[in-house]
Write a structure and sequence with these properties.
about 260 residues; mainly alpha; globular
């Protein structure tokens, strides 16, 4: 049993040692997304307490954030920007504790506000990693990774608006996020570094954005329950599209190292 534990620790340490700058930017970028995904899952579990899916998404996302923190905390190439990672962890601890409580409207309002602070600190860390990399493809990883976050912040703001949590802020944020997602998608599509595979995946994300926008604009006449399914399902597809693209950009950067 002890030998098995030692072996697993050795494998984990090798995994950390093998982390590249491109992978680090990708992982740090996922922290931005997870701050928003956790919040929307918490709110939706309050709206639909009988739906197990939201609780599962919430639990998995909290666990992933923790794992990612551990990987980034032991990434030697980013030692000189570790103070920023400490700021992320300082915001994360109270956020995590609140997210694991039963979903109430009061708790959701607090988490909604805290998610914006956590997002600010995680984004700052991604930018510092990008600066360390010092290559054009690092910026593309950052932008594509931010698209993942936007897909989940779109859903978070939709859920907050639905549950009447900071409704004016949620509505304004929803419109701003849809506009930003679209404009950044256009910018990525124009990159001269794109491979045919990257361009194809970006076009998939564009199609999914157009479909989601129909739901937000009221073109679909759906029940609240069905609309939640459509919005969460489509924004998850937007997330997956951009996750693939972010990893493709990370491979581009690492191939130039």
């Amino acid at each position: 049993m002890k030998l098995t534990a030692v072996f697993l620790l050795l494998i984990a340490s090798l995994d950390v040692a093998a982390l590249t700058i491109g992978e680090a930017i990708n992982i740090a970028g996922r922290q931005r997304m997870l701050s928003q995904r956790i919040t929307q899952a918490f709110i939706l579990s309050g709206i639909q307490p009988e739906a197990q899916r939201h609780q599962k998404v919430l639990k998995r996302s909290v666990q992933e954030f923790e794992r990612n923190n551990q990987k980034l905390n032991t990434f030697p190439a980013a030692e000189k920007i570790k103070d920023q990672l400490k700021k992320v962890q300082s915001e994360w601890q109270p956020f995590k504790q609140l997210s694991l409580q039963p979903a109430t409207r009061e708790g959701a309002t607090d988490l909604f506000l805290r998610s914006n602070k956590l997002l600010t600190e995680t984004h700052s860390y991604v930018v510092k990693l990008q600066q360390l990399a010092d290559h054009n493809s690092a910026e593309l990883i950052n932008i594509a990774g931010r698209q993942r976050m936007l897909s989940q912040r779109i859903c978070k703001n939709y859920a907050a608006k639905l549950w009447k949590i900071s409704p004016a802020e949620a509505d304004q944020g929803l419109q701003q996020d849809l506009t930003e997602y679209s404009s950044r998608l256009t910018r990525l599509l124009e990159s001269t570094l794109n491979t045919p595979e990257i361009s194809s995946n970006l076009l998939k994300a564009k199609d999914h954005l157009n479909y989601a926008s129909r739901g937000f604009e009221g073109e679909m006449k759906l029940s609240e329950q069905r609309q939640i399914q459509v919005i969460t399902g489509t924004t998850d597809l937007m997330l997956r599209d951009m996750d693939v693209v972010t990893k493709q950009y990370a491979s581009l950067l690492d191939s130039r190292e």
